[in-house]
Amino acid sequence: MKPKILVVDDEPDLLELISVNFAAAGFTIMVAASGKEALRLAREAGPDLVLLDVMLPELDGLEVCKSLRKDPATSGIPILMLTARVAEIDRVLGLELGADDYVTKPFSVRELVLRVKNLLRRKAIPESSDDVIRLGSLLIDQPRHLVTYEGRPVDLTVTEFKLAALLAERKGRVQSRDQLLKDVWGYSSVIDTRTVDTHMRRLRAKLGRAAKHLETVRGVGYRFMDA
Fold first, then answer.
1. What is the number of other CB atoms lying within 10 angstroms of the CB of residue 128?
2. Coil, strand, or helix at residue 74?
3. Backbone angles phi, psi at 117, to 5 degrees
């Protein structure tokens, strides 16, 4: 089945541009021109990914992102935010609220398609069927896309899960921000290492006491340890 993408933007020309190009790339496209309509479609149709503009009428993209992450029915849907180049604070807030990635306007449609494909690959079940990592009471079950600590589930986004799993797989080895951007986000060149730091803050907060396994190596990057 074709992946379903919900595109949320109040610019008709941009909606048409994205719809035509993504349909040609093999996606099924749904569109919404407001935040309220986006929330309704996300809950009713269950898209595989949401392309979400920040500037929307009635309910802006940041509030939509927050609502999607709070609702158990939509909390696991990958979110890629579309932001104005000048609105750096919107990019940071979007990541803090749980967006998986962002693209700044104006953007290349080809780049946007690649970013979406990268996000959907992160969501896919790993090829290995027995890839379960244990660090003390922390368990990362990759085939089931499940993280638990002391038997209790830890609710992570697609990107947060990929980040935790990759660091756990490379336990004890420092991973630079540049390397994480390439291996988790699929960037071929360094874009913004603050993306990594923002996701790390969210990951630490969600892991709670299990965050003791996650070390910051100042000036270099991050690593998971047995602790």
1. 9
2. coil
3. -65, -40
User: What residues make up the domain containing 8?
Assistant: 4-123
Dihedral angle computed from the Cα positions of residues 118, 123, 125 and 127, in that order, rounded to the nearest 10 degrees: 20
When divided into structural domains, the chain yields a total of 2
Q: What is the CATH number of the domain that holds 138?
A: 1.10.10.10
CA distances from 164 to 1, 76, 170, 216, 224 (A): 29, 16, 10, 13, 8
Sorting pLDDT into bands at 50, 70 and 90, what band is 88? Answer: low
3-state secondary structure at position 214: strand
- In angstroms, the Cα distances linking 140 to 17, 132, 143, 202 are 39, 6, 9, 17
How many CB atoms are located within 10 Å of the residue 217 CB? 11
Q: Is residue 119 located within the same domain as residue 143?
A: no
The pLDDT of residue 210 is 92
Distance CA 175, CA 214 (A): 11
Q: Which of 92, 123, 154 lies at the terminal end of a domain, its last residue?
A: 123
Whether the predicted model's global pTM rises above the 0.70 cut: yes
